[in-house]
Design brief:
The complex is a heterodimer.
Chain A (H helix, E strand, L loop, with lengths): L1 H18 L2 H16 L4 H15 L5 H48 L10 E8 L7 E9 L2 E10 L2 H16 L8 H15 L5 E10 L4 E7 L4 E5 L4 E5 L17 E4 L5 E5 L1 H4 L2 E2 L2 E2 L2 H9 L6 H15 L8 E8 L5
Antiparallel strand pairs in A: 1-12, 2-3, 3-4, 4-5, 5-8, 6-7, 6-9, 9-12, 10-11
Chain B lengths: L2 E7 L2 H18 L3 H22 L2 E10 L2 E10 L7 H4 L13 H8 L2 E7 L3 E9 L2
Helix pairs in contact in B: 1-2, 2-4
Classes of the chains: A alpha+beta, B alpha+beta.
The complex binds adenosine-5'-triphosphate and magnesium ion (MG).
Magnesium ion binds next to helix 2 of chain B.
Chain lengths: 337, 133
């Protein structure tokens, strides 16, 4: 086969030497694609050229032939680099396929269902910046009156974060029977994470629990973004902060727990830093802007509100998220009697 | 009829001597210019590794024939530190030059057959063959 290619190459080369026309160069360039198709190495191309020239112009000076041997020598590493690239591309295709499968597994594994509690409207959006999400949302619907949510952000993205999240999930699954007060939950999860994860992985988590019987929302935080509490009566926002170290750093951490009493129309927005650190042309987005966006749709459902915020903020970044984006909204609705 | 000759590798100049020997033997075996250059490059890489990582060692070159096929065999051996993670070394993109296509995977590509025996603390022996097609 190379012989046939060599013969054709010689013809094209001869035409060009005779005419030096653009047309022949064009033909030559098209022909060069055959070299690539047939995976002919650059050093072989030089050799084909030399062979053709030997037949077309046998009387050239010896120095010309010698210099071509030198050129062949120069091309060997180019040839190797090319083949290495080809093999790396194949490898990357395989990795990509594995990633796609892993993403599907992650989605199934980390599925969670919105809780169903009378008088509480829940909405949420969680969008990964890249293929795998480093944010995690977990709902717990203990009984008909109590709805809880964990919003976590694993620092460090991609596969390690995804693996880490399965661990959090199984920790949470074990909670159903135990103490589900926010500070107790964070304490348990912190111990699990501390035991299982090396020190380079940090996880922040906000845990909130709403009890419809008393309309209270209690919460704790492990180094997570504060949540935003909207008081409908006064039309004002308040940050919900609670002291507590990131998960997995040390075992004996005391997590603060606080509570707010919710009235009809009040809502609480829990977010990850992918929301609060939305980059705009002028730098990070202002907290007031987020508040305004939320307030402007306060009369809509919690899900609509979450989606509205996502659409607006993603739009600001031209839909190229810099970080995983997660928001969960708990909104107290008047209970229909 | 097999015929073996060798070059001891101590200095960088010995790498050149090993290349020269390899090219001559390849030519005598009947390899064309391109394959001569490939065989020489393989020898060069192996000799360089000996020089850099083992300090000293040997490159042996043998013209071989098997079932009517002719070819060339390179044996690069040393009693240096050995290679502990062979699998990694044979991976593309691992060599310190990174992405220049050279290194051990490059040698493997340049030749038809390639075998490494290496034991940490004992040394490394690499055998590579190329056949005349
Ligand atoms: N003869 C040897 N003895 C001990 N270690 C070796 C030997 N040959 C290779 N190695 C080890 O294997 C590694 C990979 O070698 P390889 O030739 O593939 O790449 P490199 O020498 O690092 O870079 P380059 O691309 O410049 O050759 C080396 O970095 C070295 O640690
Ligand atoms: Mg090397």
């Amino acid at each position: 086969m190379p012989r046939e290619v060599g013969r054709q190459y010689k013809e094209i080369l001869k035409k060009y030497i005779d005419s030096q026309s653009e047309e022949d160069l064009y033909v030559g360039q098209q022909f060069s694609r055959r070299f690539i198709e047939k995976q002919i190495a650059p050093e072989d191309v030089i050799s084909i050229h030399k062979t053709a020239l030997l037949e077309l112009l046998p009387d050239l000076r010896d120095e010309v032939w010698i210099s071509m041997d030198f050129l062949i020598e120069m091309m060997i590493h180019y040839g190797l680099t090319l083949r290495e690239h080809q093999s790396l591309i194949r490898k990357q295709e395989i990795l990509q396929m594995e990633m796609n499968v892993a993403t599907k597994v992650q989605d199934t594994l980390l599925q969670t269902t919105s809780p169903n509690v009378k008088g509480l409207d829940v909405g949420w959006v969680s969008q990964p910046a890249h293929q795998m999400n480093g944010d995690y949302v977990y709902f717990l619907n203990e009984n008909q009156h109590v709805a809880s949510v964990a919003v976590a952000d694993v620092m460090g993205k991609g596969i390690p974060a995804a693996l880490c999240m399965s661990m959090i999930k199984f920790g949470m699954d074990g909670l159903e029977k135990g103490d589900t007060d926010p500070r107790a939950v964070l304490d348990i999860i912190n111990r699990i994470v501390e035991k299982s994860v090396d020190n380079s992985m940090f996880i922040s988590m906000f845990y909130g629990k709403y009890d419809a019987r008393s309309s209270t929302f209690s919460y704790s935080s492990a180094g997570h973004e504060p949540a935003l509490y909207f008081n409908a009566a006064s039309g004002t926002f308040m940050e919900l902060n609670a002291k507590g170290l990131l998960l997995g750093i040390k075992t004996d951490v005391v997590y603060e727990e606080h509570a707010v009493q919710m009235q009809d129309g009040d809502f609480i927005a829990m977010m990850t830093d992918g929301v609060t650190e939305t980059r705009t042309e002028e730098g990070f987005i202002e907290s007031e802007s987020i508040q305004q966006l939320l307030e402007s749709v306060r009369d809509q459902s919690a899900q609509k509100m979450a989606e509205h915020l996502y659409n607006e903020l993603a739009g600001l970044q031209e839909y190229r998220l810099g970080d995983d984006f997660t928001i969960v909204i708990f909104k107290k609705n008047p209970e229909e009697v | 009829m097999s015929y073996r000759s060798s070059v001891e590798i101590y200095t960088e100049w010995d790498i050149v001597a090993a290349r020269q020997l390899g090219r001559n033997e390849a030519k005598k075996t009947g390899f064309g210019t391109v394959d001569q250059a490939r065989i020489t490059t393989a020898i060069s890489e192996l000799a360089r590794n000996i020089y850099l990582y083992a300090g000293k060692g040997k490159i042996e070159i043998e013209r071989i024939s098997e079932n009517g096929a002719f070819g060339i065999k390179i044996i690069a051996s040393d009693e240096g530190p050995g290679i502990s993670d062979l699998r990694k070394v044979m991976e593309d993109g691992y060599s310190t030059s990174g992405g220049l296509g050279a290194g051990m995977p490059g040698v493997k590509r340049l030749m038809d057959e390639f075998k490494v025996v290496s034991e940490p603390g004992v040394g490394t022996t690499i055998t590579a063959k190329k056949w005349l097609h």
